[in-house]
Write a structure and sequence with these properties.
It contains 6 helices and 42 strands. The protein is mainly beta. The strands form 10 sheets. The chain has a 6-stranded antiparallel beta sheet. Strands 4, 5, 6, 9, 12 and 14 form a 6-stranded antiparallel beta sheet that branches. The protein has a 6-stranded antiparallel beta sheet with strand order 26-25-30-23-32-33, with no helix packed on it.
Amino acid sequence: MNKKQVTGYPEWTPPRRGLLRSSEQLQVTTCWQKSILLFSLFIIHHSFCFSQEVLMDLTTNPVVVKKYNEVRNSTLRINPVKLDTVSLPFLDDFSKDDIYPDAFLWLDSNVFINRDYPIAPPTLGVATFDGVSKSGCPYDTLASANSSESADTLTSKPINLSSLPPDSSVIFSFFWQASSFLYGRGNDPENSDTLLLQFKNPLLADSIAWKTVWYKNGYNPVTPDTGFHLVIIPITDLSYLQNGFQFRFRNYATVSGNVDHWHIDYVYLDKNRSMTDTIFDDVAFVYNSRSLLKNYYAMPWEQYQASEMKSNLTFFIRNNDTVTKNVSFTDTIYNSALNPVASDSLNAGNIYSWSTNGYCNYAPFANPPISTTPPNYVFPILTQDTSFLLECVLTPPISDIDKWNDTLRFTQTFSNYYAYDDGTAEKGYGLNAAGGQIAYKFSLNQPDTLVAVQMLFNWIGPNVNQQQFKIRVWGDNGGVPSSAYIYEDTIITPNYEYVYHNDWGNLTNMFYPYLLKTKQVLSGTFYVGFVQYTNPSTTLLNLGLDQNTNSNSKMYYNVGSGWNQSALAGSWMIRPVFGTTKGLLTVHNEEPLTSSFTIYPNPTSGKFRIQSDNNSFLKSIEENYHLTVFSIDGQMVHEETISSFSSEIDISNLREGLYFVRVENKNGLALNQKFVLTK
């Protein structure tokens, strides 16, 4: 049977490079805009302006960047696949706890397995397609923001479909969701972006074996479309009913950033199904578990009190069948030595169908007490930094077809910092007003000493030294920051964790600790944040924003007319640190940014020299300096040791584009400068 008979879809052809993306505007309070920033050249940032507050899309995927670096610098390998044949049924709901696809089912590792981006998936976890590779970096930083290129691919292992009848009983199904910048946690694919499904005829040469059997073009819905859509495709073509059949999902996207998100879930291929097979014998968790604390995601161990504990947890549980399921639920808390300190096995209860009743509303499961053994369990008095593990397990009937989505784990951390965020950024946050201030509200249970502020900034680019700010601390004035700050630190700029590798390098947006010049003894309610000295018409301070927790009742901004509560749901990635700097990245104290250096010639055709504008930085021929050159997406492309009167630096092997140079002296002071390479 031909493709049209299988799917009813016309032949799909890749979008042409240069195809203009939609410019449709949607007025929401003040504006909806899509802008091209790429550090003034290439990288796109979709921006949603809400008064003076601005949301920005990410350039990289920080979770994948971090994992990729860890794998490359260890004995592990990403997706060590073997080209063996798998048998039916083929089922993956992406609920396993890894950011890369299951190597027992898939041949490649480009998509992002996660639980953070989707809205109301059928089960825990999805595979997200975007414009970044398995390294977490864009496929091509020089790609036009107005084009769609081949990006992620997710290819199944060979599957044995031989001897199966062409009678519409071999069914392939999956769910898809197009992410929405406005209504979701990602970026919406537009008309020139595509998600497609292809089947492979194993009897043909690979170059002609793949045929598109389904596709969907991107769109910008004017009303919320946060549902997952089910696609069912019968496999009746005898050319596919062979040993060695494969399928693959692909997306075409802007490949210069972490944008154009599609999510797929519950990929299921089996025999003896029918076109009415739209239900699944599966009870599952849908979202991750959250903090056991009422007010914070994490807090200093010395500030913990029993009153900080939640009395109940919240879970989203979905019965994907039409039949009511009788399920048991167990939650257990383990200490840092993984010894159980509390456990509660709840009585079995009925979970009704999602299609008729929505999420489980049986209170002992949806909102269980943290523990009733002992009653009203609280963490013991803490004497040092520690952690506790919460494990929650559903036990559905034995017919339940996927057990991976029945278990959740969460680690509750007690260290030396407060956190509202869960540690991952889905967006960037900025104020589009010069001199703007942001202030984050926290409350101490006893006086303590503020020693540092950890912040996570998303990558800004070569002009990061121009994005200056000062950390400020305010007291409380009736529930808002006081009119005058009680402490202001020196001028600093966003810092990143530099990750070096012989053949790979990047700048990872991790939490970076800014050590205070003067430690501050605080008590009660206080606010910590910064005042910015940026030019918002060029680049915004791109502070990480976690969209899986919402702390905007604690988030305030001031653009000159007084303090306002943030209107954007999420949590700033700012964490005040108390008492000790234990566990923080090794950092050098910031120095005033008075030193600089010049690159000449600039633009350069392939060779350049540097000259310090201030001898306090490059001060003698005897001292060596570490010089690195980074591409605009943060990948290290050149490094060497230089002196203040270095010979020419040769980067003629690099392609044309914008780069920046980082020079670091023996005291850890690093300066950056940008240059343009032309040939």
